[in-house]
Amino acid sequence: MQLSSLLGHVQELLGNIRASSKPADSLMDSFFRSHKYLGSHDRRFIAETTYGTLRHLRRCEFILQSAIGANAENVKQEDGLLLLPVAYLAAIECKNLTAADVSAKLSSSALKEGMVTFLRTLSNGCAIPQNGVAEQIGIEYSYPDWMVRRLLYEYGHGETEEICKSLNEPAPLTLRVNLLKTTVEECQAELKKQGIESTRTSTSPYGLQITKRINVFSLKPFQDGFFEVQDEGSQILPLLIDPKPTAKVLDACAGAGGKTLGFAALMKNRGEIFATDTNGYRLKELKKRSRRAGAFNIRPLEVSSLAELSDKYHEYFDVVFVDAPCSGLGTIRRNPGMKWTVTEETVNEVSQKQSEILGQCAPLIKPGGRLVYATCTLLRQENEDVVTGFVEANTNFSFINPDAMLANAGLNQARSGNFIKLLPHLHGTDGFFCAFLERSS
Questions:
Q1: Does 193 share its domain with 240?
Q2: In terms of DSSP bridges, do strands 415-416 and 298-302 run parallel, antiparallel, or are they unpaired?
Q3: Which of 199, 229, 259 represents a domain boundary (last residue)?
Q4: pTM, to two decimals
Q5: How far apart are the first and last CA of the chain?
Q6: Which one, 47, 77, 261, 326, has the greatest CB density within 10 A?
Q7: Distance, CA of 233 to CA of 287 (rounded, Å)
């Protein structure tokens, strides 16, 4: 397909994403299902260009505005949706584009006439204004100022830049091998039979990384339940918790059950795992995944609130795991569009919800049992502040020193006070936070 047509598809897809609150990957899947005539090479270009534009959206907008000048406000929306990926390809990826490649899909005759000069300007780049550290980092790495200011306050200048830079890198394709069905070595051999090379993950003992982008869900080993797609940080969490095979575990915000299935494998299909969520659709997906994985010790349970469990399951569980709903900022490399949908109000709302969930879980834990709180965000308001506030209000809970758990997992550098933190530029995982608490009485 000609480059001009490919850019037109990117323009259409980018418009769909920017007009919706749904995750970019979900909208992209729908887009490709409705454009089945696109070949694999065309799909790859469209997906990579769209994601690249989203990752660098603010910088692309800045470059575009600088290149067009005073007329930027007069550019029609549909032309802007085309010129954003053009700015990404020309100024950030340094691709050689011709005026004909771009002009074919433009509606403005003035833009068409000035396209040669416009592309030359893009190629030369634009200096970022030195109006303040937050704005400078925000434009350079394409993040909103409020988010950069929060990161600067909590992590400092140098680490904030490293975090922003690393979250702009595409996440690797990582698999968690299902030990209920196979071994890591057998799974790797089955993938190789399909012509797919993989390497062992550096920390997770049951993880594999695929060296190239493919649709793993169409593979027979996946359909046979040999693996699930899961970030290495998420794989490590059940390993840190390490529930005994006889344990009673509550996965309080289970969703579609990625970590629930990890618990089932570690517990060797023994004990009890209650997987609760307020979203029945996600639990249906968990049931389907459980059947495929051969996990039979999971009890999905839809609830409108965890408080519903307090009478029947008072002091029942050995482990209550709260994979709390959060802003998800640690997963930006997988969903770059969330940079522009998450707001400070979002963070305020979810942090209040997180505190409520912990309070509802407290009476469900046996004396001597553990409460494990985790998020995939980077902000203190959703992490340290929530857990510290809970412990101050519930004096029968105390922090567990994570050193021994981290040593067993080979993550000695992931401790931050009483907490565990994984960061993409340090550990190669999504951003991740975890705290372990024990109930004394």
A1: no
A2: unpaired
A3: 229
A4: 0.92
A5: 67
A6: 261
A7: 23
